[in-house]
Amino acid sequence: MDLDFDSKRKQDRIPVEQVRIVQVKVMLNVEEVLVLDGARENSRLSRAEAMRALAFNRKIERAPVVPEVNLNLARELGRALGNLATVATVMRAGKFVELEDVKYQLTELQKTLRGAK
Questions:
Q1: What is the 3-state secondary structure (H, E, C) of 32-59?
Q2: What Cα–Cα distance (Å) separates residue 94 from each residue in 46, 82, 83, 90, 100?
Q3: pTM for this entry
Q4: Residues near 28 by beta carbon (within 8 Å), at least 6 away in sequence
Q5: Are 36 and 50 spatial neighbours (Cβ–Cβ below 8 Å)?
Q6: Domain chopping of the chain, boundaries
Q7: Hey, how many other C-beta atoms are within 10 angstroms of the C-beta on 50?
């Protein structure tokens, strides 16, 4: 088989051994589709990629679990960081800042980070 593959655009060139030139159509029954979908669950693979992995005994990696964002915590954290940024701006301007104000803002940030607020 002659695999003369040459793209006109350099970034489109891929190694010859990775070029897929044969298309295989597969008909699956409902049970087989359920097995395939179960194998690719939480992997972010398409059915074609999962089928290829299963056919060649490759491990299907699970996608990392990303925790849901706690919106209230994110808001509180944003508010606390905004307050600290304001204190930093005042300090950079050479204005007097009460040390107690800075301590208070840092304590609030710590509470927010711990989820205590």
A1: HHHHHHHHCCCCCCCHHHHHHHHHCCCC
A2: 58, 19, 17, 7, 17
A3: 0.42
A4: 36
A5: yes
A6: 1-66, 71-114
A7: 19
84 contacts 92 by C-beta, under 8 angstroms = no
Tokens 């089928």 -> residue? 51
Q: Which amino acid is at 61?
A: E
Cβ-Cβ contacts under 8 Å for 90 (sequence gap 6 or more) = 97
Q: Residue with structure tokens 């944003």? A: 78
What distance in Å separates the CA atoms of residue 77 and residue 112, rounded to the nearest whole number?
6
The amino acid at 97: V
Mind listing the pLDDT tens digit for each residue in 26-82? 899 999 999 999 988 888 888 988 898 888 898 888 877 667 777 777 777 788 788
